[in-house]
């Protein structure tokens, strides 16, 4: 078991017994941790690889009403898109989050040299074509810019994680939905 399998432990107080949407759940590594903290969990992924994960394409408008969730978890899933689409996705997350709801997020850091931040064609600023897949690599300023309108950033930290074969560098943060309820 890798240390990164427990990364959500530091957010447990924010998640416990809350309504949670997990985006990009994939094989369900984080889904299992979330399910131990709340029974109000919807886990989705474009290509679900775990029985408790449903099909969900977060590039499209999310199929949930406004102000539905207390928490959205998006770990290593918001960095596959052009900037315009990334902004749209963040706006959709904000729409489905309750006022004062929390987005718990991890994205690629520009320092993530083992997984594509160097040596690949740049499609737009810090968006690279890595082995036929788009990957964005964020600076602190990119995150601040992306979450400047109606959000309050908390715990913004650059970290190295051991989820994969080589060390991966990510930004981990919370973003509190500061807009009033709709």
General description of the model:
By secondary structure, the protein is an alpha/beta fold. The chain has one domain: Vaccinia Virus protein VP39 (Rossmann fold). Helix content is 19%, strand content 35%. The strands form two sheets. The protein has a seven-stranded mixed sheet with strand order 3-2-1-4-5-10-9. The chain has a three-stranded antiparallel sheet with strand order 6-7-8, with no helix packed on it. The longest helix has 14 residues, at 83-96. The radius of gyration is 15 Å and the shape is globular. The mean pLDDT is 93.
Which keywords apply here?
3-stranded antiparallel beta sheet; Rossmann fold; alpha/beta
SSE topology sketch:
Elements: H1 12-15, E1 20-23, H2 29-37, E2 41-45, E3 53-55, E4 69-75, H3 83-96, E5 97-108, E6 122-124, E7 127-130, E8 133-136, H4 140-146, E9 151-161, E10 168-177
Parallel strand pairs: 1-2, 1-4, 2-3, 4-5
Antiparallel strand pairs: 5-10, 6-7, 7-8, 9-10
């Amino acid at each position: 078991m890798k240390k990164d399998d427990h990364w959500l432990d530091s957010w447990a107080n924010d998640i416990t017994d809350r309504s949670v949407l997990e985006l990009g759940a994939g094989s369900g590594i984080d889904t299992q941790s979330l399910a131990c903290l709340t029974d109000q969990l919807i886990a989705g992924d474009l290509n679900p690889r775990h029985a408790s994960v449903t099909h969900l394409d977060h590039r499209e408008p999310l199929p949930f009403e406004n102000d539905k969730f207390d928490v959205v978890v998006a770990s290593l899933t918001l960095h596959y898109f052009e900037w315009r689409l990334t902004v749209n996705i963040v706006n959709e997350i904000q729409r489905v989050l309750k006022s004062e709801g929390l987005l718990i997020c991890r994205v690629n850091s520009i320092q993530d040299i083992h997984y594509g931040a160097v040596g690949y064609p740049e499609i737009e600023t810090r968006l690279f074509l890595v082995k036929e897949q788009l990957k964005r690599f964020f600076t602190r300023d990119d995150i601040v810019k992306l979450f400047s309108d109606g959000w309050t950033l908390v715990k913004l930290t650059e970290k190295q994680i051991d989820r994969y074969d080589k060390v991966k560098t990510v930004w981990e943060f919370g973003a509190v939905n500061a807009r009033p309820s709709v």
